[in-house]
């Protein structure tokens, strides 16, 4: 969607200058708003959850839009040519040539060139670069969560994963030393502790230090306490911890169900009433009351 010129024109120099009305219009399309609200009867989708999802989607829209512009600039922009010559070489039907002409004209200005050089210099100063490529951190978090049966990764696990190449090597020596400290911290922590997903005094903060106000590292672009378009950091932390607790409870229920099943097979005539009562509680069929 963010590559469609009628939805997301590339003529704006930055995402901040992208009209809020246009962002809202994109959010309300069937690709986002209607898809999300197809589950509007789900009790878990309350107002806070809706705002959180909206904030994440708008943030992802921003990332995709910038990536698309960067791709077009790397493929078609040449400061040694005129904008007309650049436009003439565009062979991608997804690109509105008139829009490209406008943004290419801006890229040729001294202001744009200076900003581009500043950005390039700042990127080169990063001594802990990730190797996640164009995959966003929220996307990686979702993938890891699905691989871990609904348990989201901690920030330390995200740091390690996004700084480790496919061949198992780490991006540089400084990162390698940090990764070792985090691995040690993770090995000493309780993997079942729901606080592992918290951003307060987790393994990551123990190694890298506490967060600055309005910033949460290793979680991608998310709403901060100063954001006007979504929930605060504390709300997101609460939501994340709730998801961890839900996953833990589900795991305990499955384990208990297995234990009950094995017990019934071994002792089919023992404590049938109690076991049946516990089974109904685990399945949510009755309230938690004493059966003995």
From TrEMBL:
Highest taxon, organism lineage: Eukaryota
InterPro entries per UniProt: Probable_transposase_24
Pfam families: Transposase_24
UniProt region (Disordered), positions on chain: 114-134
Matching PANTHER family: OS03G0714750 PROTEIN, OS10G0409366 PROTEIN-RELATED
Protein name per the record: Uncharacterized protein LOC120254624
Originating organism: Dioscorea cayennensis subsp. rotundata (White Guinea yam)
Gene name linked to the record: LOC120254624
């Amino acid at each position: 969607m963010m590559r469609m010129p009628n939805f997301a024109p590339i003529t704006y120099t930055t995402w901040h200058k992208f009209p809020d009305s246009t962002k809202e219009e994109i959010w309300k399309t069937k690709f986002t708003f209607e898809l999300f609200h197809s589950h509007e009867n789900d009790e878990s989708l309350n107002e806070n959850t809706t705002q959180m999802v909206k904030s994440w989607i708008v943030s992802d829209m921003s990332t995709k839009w910038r990536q698309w512009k960067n791709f077009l600039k790397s493929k078609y922009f040449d400061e040694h040519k005129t904008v007309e010559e650049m436009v003439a070489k565009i062979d991608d039907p997804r690109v509105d040539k008139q829009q490209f002409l406008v943004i290419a004209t801006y890229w040729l200005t001294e202001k744009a060139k200076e900003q581009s050089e500043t950005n390039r210099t700042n990127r080169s100063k990063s001594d802990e670069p990730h190797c996640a490529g164009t995959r966003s951190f929220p996307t990686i978090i979702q993938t890891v969560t699905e691989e871990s049966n609904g348990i989201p990764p901690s920030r330390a696990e995200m740091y390690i994963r996004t700084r480790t190449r496919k061949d198992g090597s780490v991006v540089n020596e400084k990162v390698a030393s940090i990764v070792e400290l985090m691995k040690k911290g993770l090995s000493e922590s309780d993997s079942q502790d729901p606080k592992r997903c918290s951003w307060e005094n987790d393994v990551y903060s123990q190694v890298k230090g506490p967060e600055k106000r309005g910033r949460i590292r290793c979680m991608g672009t998310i709403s901060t306490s100063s954001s006007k378009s979504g929930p605060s950091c504390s709300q997101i932390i609460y939501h994340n911890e709730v998801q961890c607790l839900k996953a833990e409870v589900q795991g305990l229920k499955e384990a208990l169900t297995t234990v009950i099943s094995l017990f019934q097979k071994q002792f089919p005539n023992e404590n049938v009433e109690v076991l049946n009562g516990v089974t109904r509680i685990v399945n949510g069929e009755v309230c938690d009351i004493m059966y003995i």
